[in-house]
Amino acid sequence: MGGDGAIWIRQGAELLGAEYQYSCFHLERDLRRLFGGSPEAGAVRRTLENNDRAAFNLLLEALKKEAKDPSQRERLGVFQSLINSVWEDLTS
To answer: Which of 16, 17, 41, 80 could form a disulfide with 60 if both were Cys (CB 3.0 to 4.6 A apart)?
Structure first.
């Protein structure tokens, strides 16, 4: 079952004996919303494709520090938390 990280979807997959995967659609949507077509989106995507959690977290921490807009810092933090919570469930 694919989903957006919501706990009820994960629980439903478990109940049905299905495998849960964080959907590529939601990942790409989140990357577009956060970064548009900027190079940062590609850098984040590469850390995910390389399954490099440490590099992902270092990059997000750097991006949060560089963000001038507090709401952008908050959105980056929410994204970082979400991805860390579904890390094992990411699809590529």
So the answer is: 80
Q: How many Å apart are CA 43 and CA 54, to the nearest integer? A: 13
Q: What is the DSSP letter of 90?
A: B
Distance from C-alpha of 88 to C-alpha of 84, rounded to nearest angstrom: 8
> Is residue 76 within 8 Å of 33, Cβ to Cβ?
no
Q: pTM (2 decimals)?
A: 0.80
Residues 44-67 as b or e (16 or more Cβ within 10 Å = b):
bbebbeeeeeeebeebbeebbeee
Tokens of 88: 């094992």
For the chain, what percent of residues have pLDDT higher than 90? Answer: 59
Give the 3-state secondary structure of residue 56: helix
